[in-house]
Amino acid sequence: MPTAPRSLRLAATAAGLLLASSMTITAHAAPVPTPAPAAQAATRAAADWSAPLSTQGRYIVDSRGNRFRLKAANWDGAQGSYNGSGDVDDPASHHAGQNAHDIPLGLDRVPIARLLSDFRELGVNTIRLPFSNELVHRTTPVPDAAVTANPQLRGKTPLQVYDAVVDALSQAGFAVILNNHTNTSRWCCGIDGNERWNSSQSTGQWADDWVFMARRYASVPGVVGADLYNEVRRDILDDPNWGLGDAHDWYAAAQTAGDRILTEANPRLLIVIEGINWTGIPVDGLPHGRPQLTPARTLSHTLVDSHKLVYSAHFYGYTGPRHSGATGIGETHDARYQDLSRDELNAALTDEAFYVEESGRHYTAPVWISEFGAGAGETNPATRAWFGNVTDYFTDHDADFAYWPLVGFDGHDDWALLRYDEGGRRSGLLDSGDWRAPVWRHLMDTPGKTGSVPAAAVWKMLDTDHGDAVESLRVRGTGDWDSGAYKAACPDGLRLAGLSHTGGRGLCTDAGAPGLRAADGAQSVVKDERFVSGGDWASGYTKLQCPSGAFLIGYGLRGERVSSALCAPGRSALAGGGRTVWFDRSDNRPADGAGGEFAEGAYKGQCAVNEYAAGIAFTTRLGARQGPAALLCRTLP
Fold it and tell me: Region Disordered: what ranges (predicted)?
């Protein structure tokens, strides 16, 4: 987001701290007018893809398996524009003097069909559409003045206007990613009551709102994603975290909301999880910085659908790896991204986000830079150079991206790609003289990967750090298979490939044998040695072995002790020799490190890609760790 509001809020914060498949469209609002010829042409160009979207390795693909690159922009406004002080009806009290009335900007100045035509002229195919939780519950209609150029929207609530915008975008062939940007209808992103998903509400209420929104647009084919929350960051007293299991655990909250959306509302949606934007106090000498996606390297998300996770991050020139973006009070001596050399910037982008696209890891997923931008009036050479360097990186890495912002008022927000005066006349990137235009065209026009994306092996981690990790819909449908234990089960289509000796972590994959499980949905819960056959593969240890022809898909733990093995039958005979993989005294994993570091700090055992796990061994000796100590790995047919 633009510089000044964020800098002022962070500076004030620091001062305070120091002092203390395609479906028929269902319209949700009044019909959108028939597009003009230019808009109709834009519709045809935009519709060269087929919903729903999913992921294949580091790429997003459409329903035909073709690469769909998110060339996106943020159409903001519905998340709120009020700065938090002054008369709420005075435009001067709103960001950049623009009162959005809690609906997407520009509907007072330009008919929606013309706006969409202008979007297509920019070349974008996807709209990130922010909203606030307050908007979801507001029942007061927007003032007529807020929709002057779109009179069919008079008398509508902000959510009903949002409905109409979503429908119009979908009908015009754009992909739409819903973005929960704020709790309250206040401009973010500093200390403003919107720092965390649960700053102004409970995590349960937040997830309930997501289920409501995902259901609301489930029949709109253009709605392809749920971007769970924007720029999770510190408030005055507390940091968010990634995996501690408390009320500030963004990892756990995103996991909960993502699975609820997919199981209760709309299984077609991509689930977009942004990294943590800021932790610590922005004061020299005190810990602070932008974790972004770095925590996913050792703790990544596993959803009930292994092809729906997208990670995201934000980069602006005025911020930095350890710089809040503030000026004056609250500014530290850390480098901003625009202060970095081209090579240093590339290294930072890779380390903080794009390493996630490395293939064959539990964290492998598409990375979407869902915000970046610069002002048309920018004269700072460092900022201009940064804008060129960061977009060059996006081009070189064939990255998915979304510019901030798309629409603004002429004379108010020069960051916007498109600006409109009170008469609806357009200016901005499409005009001659905008220094950003050549950079934008290079980003948009440089060819990237297109066409069919080959199937990629999936690797996913399971963690029982703070509870169950049952990510199989089939298993969930059978009820509680080991009451009182912490349970973990691989997503459907994957098998268990690795376990940690301590910590309760597991590794799942379909590498070498996609679709290994029989179609009948049967499973076996093994709690004793009744199925042990073929010799004593772990002498002196308790062995939980799958029945003949079955393979491991899950496990149960009571404290550290193994309590059960969960097995599923193979679709064909699973004969083949076996070997014991011990890991109670050291790591025992394939040399290529397939799957990545899924249990940092613990000993780990893992079957090879051409094997499946058929049993778990552990000891019950007094004083010994009773977690998994060995796997029985058998050769795949």
Answer: 81-100
Q: Show Cβ contacts of residue 622 under 8 Å, excluding neighbours closer than 6 positions.
A: none
Q: At what angle do helices 203-216 and 250-260 cross, to 10 degrees?
A: 30
Closest CA to 473 of 303, 265, 254, 310: 303
Considering only CA atoms, which of 289, 241, 250, 299 is closest in space to residue 273? 250
pLDDT of residue 355: 98
Please say whether the beta carbons of 290 and 241 come within 8 A. no
- Asked if residues 271 and 253 have their Cβ atoms less than 8 Å apart, the reply is no
In 3D space, the residue among 122, 238, 100, 119 whose CA is nearest the CA of residue 168 turns out to be: 119
Tokens (6 digits) for 515: 């679709």
Produce one character per residue of 49-84: b if its CB has 16 or more CB atoms within 10 Å, e if not.
bbbbbbbbbbbbbbbeebbbbbbbbbbbbbbbbbbb
What is each CA distance from 232 to 5, 42, 204, 564, 635, in whole angstroms? 17, 35, 17, 37, 45
Q: Report yes or no: 496 and 488 within 8 Å, Cβ to Cβ.
A: no
Within 10 A of 22 (CB to CB), how many other CB atoms are there?
Answer: 11
Pick from 197, 203, 192: which is nearest to 181 by CA? 197
Give me the pLDDT at residue 31, please.
Answer: 37
Residues of the chain with pLDDT under 70: 1-47
pLDDT at 3: 42
Give the DSSP letter of residue 490: P
Sheet holding 469-470, edge to edge: 469-470, 486-489, 550-558, 561-569, 524-526
What's residue 48's pLDDT?
87
Specify whether the CB–CB gap between 115 and 125 falls below 8 A. no
The pLDDT, as a whole number, for residue 135 is: 96
Q: Where are the domains of the chain?
A: 54-445, 459-635
Exposure on the CB side of residue 506, measured as CA atoms within 13 A: 34
Shortest CA distance to 607 belongs to which of 577, 633, 636? 633
Helix (H) or strand (E) holding 487: strand 486-489
The CB density around residue 636, as the number of other CB atoms within 10 Å, is 19
- pLDDT at site 307: 98
**Architecture field, domain 54-445:** Alpha-Beta Barrel (3.20)
The answer to whether 475 touches 377, Cβ cutoff 8 Å, is: no
Quick check: helix, strand or coil at residue 440? Answer: helix
339 DSSP assignment = G
Name the H helices within 522-578: none
What pLDDT, on a 0 to 100 scale, did the predictor assign at position 623? 83
